[in-house]
């Protein structure tokens, strides 16, 4: 496929050379972003201005707001040589592309563009987007997470002066420092009822790992030896344990921080809502919360209160006994794909969008802190000024975003890191949930992750993939399949009539056979070849042979975890789902008032978009204030609730359904039962297909309803049931979308308890760019499912086909 | 199932049932209704939450329980979604409708043809070809994505609707073929054997006997195919680039970008996207309620 790409590129270049001779038609740039509705409006406006100023350049904006899928699409389109010219990029993703020369280093442009000075940009964010001294992404914004959003009303009520950022935290409360001590403030703001139950927490972290990471950086610690090229994992140290013990003490014992937060990474909106509901007095997060906060807290609205931001406190004895700060930081910018035919024009666009015009527009809309410092410090652009409209006045202390920049830190950005991260992050989840002590969690996690890291870092000398042999092998496989299909029947002689029937059959099959040959066989055989490759979608493929399979079975702990998780899901959810579907179909086949309406209602969850469905499920299953827990911990149901809590390993806490490693998968299975509508319809259609006179005849013969069920309904329903079982299992083995949305990307959920097989394939393919390994995993799954299906077909004697009955 | 009993008419059957059975069935119906109603409350919950959230302001969503009835009910979210120039609902609706309709037609036509062959005809390699058919469902699409993409690029199909509906006309997918095959196999063979003896060709049997008897199954496949394509996310995401070629599912994503989930708009949009499917389902239901009306008998 690499040769194909090269040939295509050559053809395109030739064509272009012709085109450029032909005339100076305006150049069209494809420009891709992952922005949502609001920033999209701003970008559209800036682009209009850009086109006016550059009449020879047209820009076609393409937008894919799903952040995970965006990066996947970029990889696929680049691999197929159909990438856009300019694309939004961030530090977590650029490195994989930069290493493989898929995006252009921009330094040359920095130097040759008159009036452009990269030193105007905040240095740390430029460095974070550089590799080996070359910058690949021109940053459009910087977003340190070292901000504390605080509720001014509560501070006033408690008589505590507003934080000015000079506060510190130590490992214990220091009442003598009063408002200069973060823990003292947190304690003062926490409000407990007479029963000891917390009515309002002092503080909450944007997501569980966020505050811990901030504490880690502030304490001068590193979690890895080198964030861009990690080789050593440094979680298992006494200093690190001290941080985790400290945090866990605040959350689980002192209860100044809510303990049960949601699944690892997507709970910004949840913590933000706790704040808006005034159930927490302060929360930590980046500046990106502001647009939503402004919408939820409009001056004059009911429930409005004044709020502002302050710098997250420094560690009192951070480094060398002196106060020290460190904030994990995000940011994004624009890159130029190396496949572009118009690099000059692309740079014009990048410079414009990540330059004053783009940044000013984004800053004025309150969406992003400019990466150019002087813009960030100009009143009425980013800082509120005299002309800032009232609804954009909050937060007033926006200077804090600039004050935070000297202390920014950047987490791991290596392209192979995601494969390892799941192993250590899983244990961190268990620690936050109180299921493991920091000591054991960090120890096990570090050990497992280090092992995997070492495996990935091991250098392999691999020969290039032998394409001619590969293609020959592919053809041989196709031949082999044909042989396997027709060889066993070679001795059966067909009569003239049978031959004619066979010919007719192939006419009926023609559409499928053509489709199979054109759309399916090629990609399937290629993916089989991939399974013995080392291929990252970009560089030429290498021969890796059986090592991919060896790695899966022997080395990769995630393989066995995901196999176990998938088996549990498949073996429980499928039979349970079919049982419920059958039950519903039987009930809905009765002549009861309102049956058509009931059918529609039971089918509703199936047609609801998976995204909406999952988001709602998260609300209903939320640990605090979710509908399920409100019922479960009501006085009547309390014993059941408590039993589940202790099963989950968190006695005396409301169970955190999606966030707890013991209940997460069970919750997914429960949720999957809402999707039985499909199987229900199939069974219902099967029931409707049973001729009435069978029942009438049986009734006449004196059969009671149960006998009728056993003798007529169930046997005649077996073809439909068999279908539901076979396809149900095939589908369950490949369960993906719902879990991907719940866990917000390919990260496996709390302690990898939701790491289904497809997630591990996906993460190998698109998080670490090891498509060869992913293909090997996929083919292992294929054979498991195939065996399972063949077994079901062998055991399908129970299926009764009317057409066979004589 | 005995032959003689089939001859009995409905009236006779009715007369022979006893009073006791009637009473029993009344109680059974009552219980069935109660069970269905209780279950329906659970199954309608997601839609209910979607609707109430779509009727709330962002502030109310943040401060009240997800399922509480809106304090000050607002239609603004629906207005915003329908009039947002960034995400042209009308245009995306047309695009989605085109793709879903074309592929549903393709699925219905081609999968029923193929299923007929598997259900009714004897041919070389049938059983193993059937396994082959099923096995196309077993390989995760993640690993065939790039070869497939390259193929479509060769055909100049990227950024057109073709990759999203043309393949449906070539077999219509193993799932649908398998489903129809199961139903076709449930139709007694006497019917087509009689027709064969009368000299009918297989295409006549297919069109005149099998298809008319498969209303419920075809309606099921049609509804499934339409819904699948209506809700498909991955296909449009990969193959469509131009802003004016987007589908509704892609458009909805703009309301839940990174760090900026606009729940009110997302829910309003999701409700709007669902409405055509609900209508389709209610209309399609008539087909599978009818069932097989076999007048011929024997």
Shape of chain B: flat
Q: How many H/I helices of chain A?
A: 33
Strand residue content of chain A: 5-15%
Class from helix and strand fractions of chain B: mainly alpha
Termini separation of chain A: 54 Å
Share of residues in helices of chain A: 40-55%
State which percent range the strand residues of chain B make up: under 5%
Q: Residue share in helices of chain B?
A: 55-70%
Tell the overall outline of chain A: globular
Care to describe what's here?
The complex is a heterodimer of chains A (806) and B (298). Helices cover 54% and strands 10% of the residues of chain A. By secondary structure, chain A is an alpha/beta fold. In chain A, a hairpin with a 7-residue loop joins strand 17 and strand 18. In chain A, helix 9 (208-218) crosses helix 10 (238-254), helix 22 (557-588) crosses helix 28 (677-688) and helix 28 runs antiparallel to helix 30 (705-733). By secondary structure, chain B is mainly alpha-helical. Chain B has 16 helices and two strands. In chain B, strand 1 (256-257) and strand 2 (260-261) form a beta hairpin. Chains A and B meet through helix 2, strand 2, helix 3, helix 11 and helix 12 of A and helix 2, helix 3, helix 4, helix 6 and helix 7 of B.
Describe the structure concisely.
Chain A is α/β, with parallel strands linked by helices. Chain A contains 33 helices and 18 strands. Chain B contains 16 helices and 2 strands.
């Amino acid at each position: 496929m690499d040769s194909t790409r090269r040939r295509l590129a050559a053809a395109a270049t030739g064509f272009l050379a012709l085109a450029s001779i032909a005339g100076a038609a305006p150049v069209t740039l494809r420009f891709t972003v992952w922005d949502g509705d609001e920033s999209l409006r701003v970008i559209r406006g800036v682009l209009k201005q850009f086109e006016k100023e550059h009449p020879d350049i047209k820009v076609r904006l393409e937008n894919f707001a799903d952040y995970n899928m965006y990066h996947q699409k970029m990889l696929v389109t680049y691999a197929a040589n159909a990438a856009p010219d300019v694309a939004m990029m961030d530090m977590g993703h650029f490195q994989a592309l930069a290493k493989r020369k898929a995006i252009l280093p921009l330094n040359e442009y920095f130097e040759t563009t008159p009036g452009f000075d990269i030193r105007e940009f905040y240095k740390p964010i430029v460095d974070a987007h550089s590799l080996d001294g070359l910058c690949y992404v021109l940053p459009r914004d910087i977003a340190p997470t070292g901000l504390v959003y605080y509720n001014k009303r509560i501070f006033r009520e408690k008589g505590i002066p507003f934080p000015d950022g000079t506060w510190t935290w130590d490992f214990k409360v220091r009442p003598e420092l009063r408002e200069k001590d973060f823990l003292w403030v947190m304690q003062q703001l926490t409000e407990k009822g007479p029963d000891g139950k917390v009515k309002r927490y002092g503080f909450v972290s944007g997501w569980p790992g966020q505050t811990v990471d901030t504490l880690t950086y502030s304490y001068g610690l590193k979690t890895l030896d080198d964030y861009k090229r990690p080789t050593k994992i440094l979680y298992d140290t006494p200093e690190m344990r001290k941080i985790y013990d400290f945090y866990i003490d605040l959350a689980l014992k002192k209860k100044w921080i809510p303990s049960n937060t949601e699944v690892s990474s997507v709970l910004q909106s949840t913590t933000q809502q706790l704040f808006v509901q005034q159930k927490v007095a302060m929360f930590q997060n980046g500046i990106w919360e502001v647009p939503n906060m402004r919408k939820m807290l409009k001056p004059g609205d009911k429930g409005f209160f004044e709020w502002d931001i302050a710098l997250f406190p420094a560690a009192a004895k951070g480094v060398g006994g002196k106060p020290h700060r460190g904030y994990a930081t995000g940011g994004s910018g624009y890159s130029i794909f190396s496949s572009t035919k118009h690099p000059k024009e692309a740079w014009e666009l990048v410079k414009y969008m990540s330059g004053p015009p783009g940044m000013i527009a984004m800053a004025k809309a309150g969406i992003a802190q400019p990466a150019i410092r002087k813009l960030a410090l100009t009143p009425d652009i980013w800082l509120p000024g005299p002309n800032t409209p009232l609804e954009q006045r909050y937060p007033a202390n926006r200077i804090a975003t600039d004050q935070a920049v000297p202390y920014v830190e950047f987490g791991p950005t290596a392209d192979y890191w995601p494969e390892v991260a799941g192993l250590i992050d899983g244990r961190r989840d268990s620690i936050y949930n109180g299921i493991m002590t920091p000591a054991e969690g960090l120890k096990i996690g570090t050990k497992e992750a280090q092992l995997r890291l070492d495996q990935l870092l091991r250098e392999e000398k691999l020969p290039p993939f032998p394409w001619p042999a590969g293609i020959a092998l592919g053809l041989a496989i196709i031949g082999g399949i044909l042989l396997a299909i027709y060889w066993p029947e070679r001795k059966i002689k067909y009569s003239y009539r049978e031959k004619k029937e066979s010919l007719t059959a192939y006419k009926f099959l023609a559409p499928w056979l053509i489709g199979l040959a054109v759309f399916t066989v090629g990609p399937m055989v290629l993916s089989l070849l991939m399974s013995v490759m080392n291929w990252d979608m970009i560089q030429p493929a290498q021969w890796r042979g059986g090592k991919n399979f060896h790695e899966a079975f022997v080395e990769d702990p995630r393989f066995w975890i995901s196999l176990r998780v998938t088996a549990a899901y498949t073996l429980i959810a499928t039979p349970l789902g079919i049982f419920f579907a059958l039950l519903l179909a039987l009930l809905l086949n009765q002549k009861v008032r309102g049956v058509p309406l009931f059918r529609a209602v039971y089918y509703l969850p199936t047609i609801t978009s998976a995204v909406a469905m999952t988001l709602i499920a998260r609300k209903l299953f939320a640990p605090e204030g979710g509908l399920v827990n409100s019922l479960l911990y009501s006085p009547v149901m309390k014993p059941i609730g408590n039993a589940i809590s202790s099963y989950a390993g968190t006695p005396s806490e409301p169970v955190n359904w999606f966030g707890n490693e013991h209940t997460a998968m069970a919750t997914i299975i429960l949720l999957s039962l809402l999707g039985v509508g499909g199987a229900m319809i199939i069974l219902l259609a099967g029931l409707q297909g049973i001729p009435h006179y069978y029942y009438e005849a049986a009734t006449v013969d004196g059969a009671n309803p149960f006998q009728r069920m056993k003798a007529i309904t169930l046997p005649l329903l077996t073809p439909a049931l068999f279908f539901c079982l076979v396809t149900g299992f095939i589908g369950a083995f490949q369960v993906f979308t719902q879990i991907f949305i719940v866990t917000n990307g390919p990260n496996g959920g709390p302690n990898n308890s939701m790491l289904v097989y497809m997630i591990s394939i996906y993460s190998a393919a698109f998080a670490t760019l090891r498509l060869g390994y992913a293909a090997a995993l996929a083919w292992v799954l294929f054979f498991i499912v195939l065996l399972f299906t063949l077994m079901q077909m062998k055991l399908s004697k129970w299926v009764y086909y009317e057409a066979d009955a004589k | 199932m005995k032959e003689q009993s089939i001859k009995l008419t409905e009236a006779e059957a009715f007369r022979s049932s006893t009073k006791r059975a009637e009473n029993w069935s009344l109680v059974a119906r009552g219980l069935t209704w109660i069970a269905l109603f209780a279950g329906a409350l659970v199954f309608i919950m997601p839609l209910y939450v979607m609707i109430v959230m779509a009727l709330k302001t962002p502030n109310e969503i943040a401060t009240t329980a997800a399922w509480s009835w809106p304090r000050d009910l607002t239609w603004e979210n629906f207005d915003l979604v329908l009039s947002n120039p960034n995400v042209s609902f009308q245009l995306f609706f047309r695009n989605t409708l085109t793709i879903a309709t074309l592929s549903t037609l393709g699925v219905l036509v081609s999968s029923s043809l193929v299923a007929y062959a598997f259900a009714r005809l004897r041919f070389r390699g049938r059983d193993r070809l059937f396994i082959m058919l099923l096995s196309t469902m077993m390989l995760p699409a993640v690993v065939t994505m790039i070869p497939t993409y390259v193929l479509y690029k060769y055909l100049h199909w990227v950024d057109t609707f073709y990759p999203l509906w043309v393949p449906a006309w070539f077999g219509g997918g193993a799932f649908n073929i398998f489903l129809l095959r199961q139903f076709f196999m449930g139709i007694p063979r006497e019917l087509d054997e009689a027709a064969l003896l009368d000299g009918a060709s297989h295409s006549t049997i297919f069109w005149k006997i099998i298809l008319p008897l498969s209303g419920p199954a075809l309606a099921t496949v049609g509804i499934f195919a339409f819904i699948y394509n209506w809700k498909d996310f991955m296909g449009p995401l990969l193959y469509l680039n131009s802003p004016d070629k987007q589908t509704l599912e892609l458009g909805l994503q703009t309301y839940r970008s990174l760090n900026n989930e606009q729940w009110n708009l997302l829910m309003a949009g999701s409700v709007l996207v669902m409405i055509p499917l609900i209508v389709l389902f209610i209309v399609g239901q008539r087909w599978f309620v009818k069932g097989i009306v076999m007048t011929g008998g024997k």
